[in-house]
Amino acid sequence: MSEENRVRDEICRVGASLFDRGLTAGSSGNISVRLEDGGWLMTPTNVSMGALDPARLSRFDATGQLVSGDAPTKEAFLHFSMYAERADASAVVHLHSTHATAVSILRDVDPEDVLPALTAYYVMRVGRLPLVPYFAPGDPELAHAVKALASRHHAVLLANHGPVVAGSSLANAQYATEELEETARLFLMLQNHALRTLTPDQVADLRRRFNLS
Predict the structure, then answer these.
(1) S-S: 52 plus which of 12, 59, 107, 126, CB 3.0-4.6 Å?
(2) Which residues is 108 bridged to in the sheet?
(3) CA–CA distance, 71 with 173 (Å, rounded to integer)
(4) Are strands 162-167 and 91-94 parallel, antiparallel or unpaired?
(5) Strand ordering across the sheet containing 155-158
(6) Shortest CA distance to 124 belongs to which of 91, 155, 80?
(7) What count of Cα atoms within 13 Å lies in the side-chain half-sphere of residue 200?
(8) 213: pLDDT strictly greater than 80
(9) The pLDDT value given to residue 96
(10) What is the set of active-site residues?
C-alpha cells in the first residue's frame, strides 16, 4: 500500500471513530493531512465523517490547488491557515463537538485562555486555548483571525462554532481534540463549584518536563 493510500484509510478511520462516538454530527467537522509531496488530503464538503470514502477525499497539490477528488470542505481555509503558520503541523482536525462548542458560547470566559488547567493531560495535549472572535462561516476574516494565532497556538476555539486543532500527526491532532472536548465537558460539569486547578508552578513544571512550547 502506498503512503497516500494509507493516509486516505487513516482519515476515514478517524472520521468514523469521531462520528460513532458522537464527537461530530451530520456533515459537520473536517480533517486534513499534509502529504510527503507537500500536498494535502482533506475531507469533502457535505459528507458525514461516518461515511467517508478514501477514493473521494479532496486532494490538493503543494500550491493548494484541488487536483482530484470531490469538492473540499467549505472550511478548508481554516486548515490552510494553520498549515501556513505551523511548519510542524502534519494534520488538522476541526469539529463542532458539543461541549467545546458550548464553552465557545459562554459569555465570561477568558478569550486569551478559554479553559482552565483542570488536568495535566489537558496542559500536555492542548496548553493555552485562545478564543477566535465570531465570524460568519466562510468569512475570509475568520481565516485571518485563525492565522494570527496559529504560530503561537496549535489549538484555537472559534466563538459559537468549535475547535480547530493541529498536530504533528493525525493521531496527535485527534487526541488533542478529544482531550479538549473532555476538558470542556468537565468544565461545564463543574460550573458553580469551587475549582482546584493546577497552579502556575505545576503548569510550568509540566512544560519543562515534556518540552512544551
Answers:
(1) 12
(2) none
(3) 23
(4) antiparallel
(5) 66-68, 58-60, 40-42, 30-34, 91-94, 162-167, 155-158, 131-132
(6) 155
(7) 0
(8) no
(9) 97
(10) 121
Spell out the alpha helix ranges (H) of the chain: 3-20, 76-85, 98-105, 120-125, 140-150, 170-189, 200-209
Query: For the packed helices 170-189 and 98-105, what is the interaxial angle rounded to 10 degrees?
Result: 60
Q: What angle do CA 55, 167, 145 make, to 5 degrees?
A: 100
The C-alpha R_g of the chain, in whole angstroms, comes to 17
DSSP SS3 for 32 = strand
Confidence of residue 82 (pLDDT cuts 50, 70, 90): very high
Per-residue pLDDT tens for 42-68? 999 999 999 999 999 999 999 999 999
% of the chain with per-residue pLDDT over 70: 100
The answer, yes or no, to whether residue 92 has pLDDT greater than 80, is: yes
pLDDT (tens digit per residue) in 140-177 = 899 999 999 999 999 999 999 999 999 999 999 999 99
* CA 114 to mean position of chain CA atoms: 15
Confidence of residue 138 (pLDDT cuts 50, 70, 90): confident
Indicate the residue type of 87: A
Which grid cell sits at 48?
458525514
CA distance 120 to 183: 11
Cα three-residue angle 66-4-79, rounded to 5 degrees = 45
| Calpha distance 71→57 (Å, rounded) | 8
